[in-house]
Amino acid sequence: MTEKTARSNLAFPHRHLLGIEGLSPDEITLLLDLSEAYVEQNRLEDKKKSTLRGRTLINLFFETSTRTRTSFELAGKRLGADVINMSIATSSIKKGETLLDTAITLNAMHPDVLVVRHPYSGAVKLLSEKVNCAVINGGDGSHEHPTQALLDALTIRRRLGRLSKLTVAICGDVLHSRVARSNIHLLNTMGAHVRVVAPPTLLPASIGRLGVEVFHDMREGLRGCDIVMMLRLQTERMKGSFVPSIREYFHFFGLDYDKLSVAKEDALIMHPGPMNRGIEIDSELADDVGRSVIQEQVEMGVAVRMACLETLASNGVVGSAR
Hints:
Elements: H1 3-8, H2 25-41, E1 56-61, H3 67-78, E2 82-86, H4 99-108, E3 113-118, H5 123-128, E4 134-140, H6 146-160, E5 167-171, H7 178-189, E6 193-197, E7 213-215, H8 218-222, E8 227-230, H9 246-253, H10 257-260, E9 268-270, H11 283-286, H12 294-314
Parallel strand pairs: 1-2, 1-3, 3-4, 5-6, 5-8, 6-7, 8-9
């Protein structure tokens, strides 16, 4: 039995996928290996399988989303599930229903998987404790976004063949970024060296405890990097002044060819989207097919979410008694 086959036969011992923190290297590798197969499946003319036939997936997004919600919808449908996208704007939640009442209501409908995005950290975990189905965290506040980190890892692994011993710079609004936290957990677990590059106002006070190297200068932070991962400036989460001006932010912390020149010659550029061109990243660089893998990240997202749905289902978790 090959090492890859042995890994694929490992059980995924988790009822839910609420975060990357706490996952082992083998568990992460299991999800990435399964995702690889779905990348090829999604490029075929017939993309559908029947793995989740008869199962129900509900997307419950308390925040707006294009990439994550759409890719979970595609993932569920390509696996044969019945997919429901709940509209928060017209739901009882808008009428004052609490999160726990929502959980009780949804539980009575016997869904098999809930994908939940919520503006408050910890809200998805709370909901997961009140339902009888599998719950996948589609992003909770500034806490975690596990499937984004997995699709980023898959993108890197397919391009460079490994995650270990790579130097990855995560740049920008780390303070408000659940993407940054999930990527830090995953990359550290898989043996990469992680740097964060940001002004002090956009870094959590406890960032050093996450096992990263901290830089406040882009050129120093990018020097010798294999991967440059830019983050969206999340102005909607900012209360107060975090940057002097958008123009000044781009001057010091926006990615352009000049700042990128100190990274490795073949360093890859990533961004979880949506991009603010001319703020976080130069538009020409974002579209540079030789350096940017931003569109590949979007493609990998569907494959990763299919893998996560199948893993929970084949684990005997989805739809089972608790």
